[in-house]
Amino acid sequence: MTTPAVKGPASYFPSIEKKYGRPVAEWQELIRSSPLVKHMELVAWLKAEHGLGHGHANALVAHTLAEDSGK
Question: Which Pfam families match (predicted)?
């Protein structure tokens, strides 16, 4: 039996970890510790301050905010 393919924002996680050299949990800690709360503000911050690409930043923020809201 095969495991189902990961879909949605989490599908970016292996490439994020490989490209930026930090585990997803560390990125989530940074997002959660930021004083910013709006999705696109957090995306822009990750891009400007940490050099992430838009898709990677968006995936991390979307997944983190969804986890925190209980979705």
Answer: DUF4287 (PF14117)
**Is residue 7 in some structural domain?**
no
Number of independent structural domains in the chain: 1
Q: Which helix (H) or strand (E) holds 41?
A: helix 39-50
DSSP state of 22: S
Closest CA to 57 of 6, 19, 26, 16: 16
Domain limits for position 49: 13-68
pLDDT band at 7 (very low <50, low <70, confident <90, very high): confident
CA distance 58 to 46: 9
Structural domain contains residue 54? yes
Q: Which of 20, 12, 9, 69 is nearest to 49 (CA)?
A: 20
**Strands in 14-71 per DSSP E:** none
